[in-house]
Amino acid sequence: MEKMTQKAPDEFEFLRGITAKYGLTKIGDDCAILPKDGDSDLVITADLLVQNIDFKLEWTSAEMLGHKALAVSLSDIAATGASSRYALLSIAVSQGFWASDLLDGFYEGWHKLAKIHGVELVGGDLSRIDEGLVIDSVVIGEVPKGKAVRRSGAKPGDGIYVSDNLGSAAAGLRLLERGYRMSETTDRKVADLLKAQLAPVPRADLGVRLREADLATSMVDLSDGLSSDLAHICDASGVGARIFADRIPIGPELGSLFTDSDELLALALNGGEDFELLFTASSEKKSSPELDGLFNIGEITANVGVIEIISDKGAEVLPRKGYRHF
Amino acid sequence: MEKMTQKAPDEFEFLRGITAKYGLTKIGDDCAILPKDGDSDLVITADLLVQNIDFKLEWTSAEMLGHKALAVSLSDIAATGASSRYALLSIAVSQGFWASDLLDGFYEGWHKLAKIHGVELVGGDLSRIDEGLVIDSVVIGEVPKGKAVRRSGAKPGDGIYVSDNLGSAAAGLRLLERGYRMSETTDRKVADLLKAQLAPVPRADLGVRLREADLATSMVDLSDGLSSDLAHICDASGVGARIFADRIPIGPELGSLFTDSDELLALALNGGEDFELLFTASSEKKSSPELDGLFNIGEITANVGVIEIISDKGAEVLPRKGYRHF
Fold it and tell me: Exposed e or buried b for every residue in B244-277, given b needs 16+ CB within 10 A?
């Protein structure tokens, strides 16, 4: 019999395979939720940042890289409604970078953000690597027992919300690719988009507030991109979704620099790395003051696994086009 | 004024600098110790394994690499007297390795060891990297409140103990460098040394037993090498040490393959990666049955920061020659 040529699985398929094969029960959310004591659970997340894949040193400063390494993990913790407490940093670094002041700047940027969020560095590891820089950022947070928000709680009829403008980080990446850099003299609109990519602001307070108000039935942070991250909620919750193109918030600086409306929408739908929160809330709570200033972009449906987008072209099925490593 | 050319700090100096600069209170032990509940503390450790620095794929199998990635972290947890519970695995992997069955074997070896130790994989991350393989292994353990064994509790007069033969892992590394490989037909003595290097056995039960018996006043696992790891205990405890060359246990398979006695002793003193436990115990407890079968290699002294080795050549100061990345 002829051997079939098999395509390697994508990362999500691979992780589903490992999870099923070894009977893992705590995999599949942004964070693992572990029992702490009678009052609290711990949530823990790990994020790899690999040079030339997740960042380029020609594009960022050591300080901004340190900031981002922590920010991406704080964002995961925020998406569960937990408060970040402790962190570990494992860094593999080449001899050349070791002899430079790269790590000093990195730790400076990291600690500046850590101080704002009351996070303490408690461990990690340092290793040499032949070339480049690899960072693994681990953050541990705490949340009242049983209250961590998961991906899996969305119900048909729930409203779908995002916390702020989308696409800015992806637009910043495009600008970096076109040669724009962050400096004292960078045009403010350009700088805002570059900053969205290089030094994102995790929505830590908002995540806690939404959990305290018992508003979010499901939540993730927008790291892969709306089309992908909303699919994660739909998969985990066993539901579908309908979103409206004209309700997706896009910042004015983005609109003034990218004028093609299809490109703009694609940046917002598939861009990723905005690190805004995407969550669902029961329609009964749609008048809650906690939702003021947030953006209702659609609703959860019973059409399992299907995400529709409604625009002036009518209704279309939204393909998952978020970032994948493999 | 002429600018001084400064040598980059070694990794221990660098970490001491970061710890002091940012007022970190939980850095410096094998594991960070975090409060859990009224009865327990959590201990957490992270270990990077970088291709060509910490392992070579030409020398090991994917299964043995998975085993070792977990074993090194279980060993850190054991050195605090805690029981390992949860793990996170972050893996940066090249496109080529992704398309191979490397990760399947890796997870297979990892889970086989995890099952023995009751450890559950709860999270981590996967990323692409231009070339090679980088693994960050994070393990979380649990220990009765206030009972985690640290590096800092050694007192002058305490006996110094190691849990088993030293130098085998370093000898295995030498054999790999000379072209020996693990196979069905490998000579048993050679295979034992290769296995000590490629698939070390963490002393998890012993670490817990020593803590339960309230025996260890300080403890570390032998990852960097005896001369370096004993210095870590002396630094943290503010003491010195005297060890006896003829009491350092060396396995018969090692003695039969490496016949130069200076080389043998150097392997045992500086080799590293044996993942045996090194601990101190009060002299009042030297007859404890829990110490049966373990090796008393010397004693803690008040000669702060100085480690002496006594051999038939007399007393000499032992330099720190364990493994350093930088």
Answer: ebeebbbbebbeebbeeeeebbbbbbbbbbbbbb
Chain A residue with Cα closest to B89: A46
Q: What is the pLDDT of residues A276-305, one digit of tens each?
A: 999 999 999 999 999 999 999 999 999 999
For residue A293, count other CB atoms closer than 10 A to its CB.
9
Give the closest of B8, B111, B120 to A26, CB-based. B120
Chains A and B form CB pairs within 8 A to the count of: 173
Dump the DSSP string for B173-184.
HHHHHTT----T
Of A28-32, A202-206, B184-188, which one has max mean pLDDT? A202-206
Joined together, the tokens standing for residue B251 give 């396995």
Q: CB within 8 A of A261, min separation 6: which ones? A: none
C-alpha A254, offset from chain centre: 19
Cβ within 8 Å of residue A121, ≥6 positions away: A86, A87, A88, A89, A110, A111, A114, B18, B22, B24, B27
Confidence (pTM): 0.95
Give the single-character DSSP code of B302. S
Q: Which of A251, A301, A300 is nearest to A279 (CA)?
A: A300
Is A127–B26 a contact, with Cβ atoms under 8 angstroms apart? no
Contacts of B324 (CB under 8 A, 6+ apart): B10, B11, B12, B224, B228
Min Cα separation A255/chain B (Å): 31
Q: How many residues are present in chain B?
A: 326
Question: Any chain B CB within 8 A of the CB of A15?
Answer: yes
Whether A279 contacts A155, CB under 8 Å? no
List all residues of chain A from 88 to 147 with a beta carbon under 8 Å from chain B: 88, 90-92, 95, 98-99, 103, 107, 111, 120-132, 134, 136, 138, 140
Q: Which residues contact A246 (CB under 8 A, 6 or more apart)?
A: A311, A312
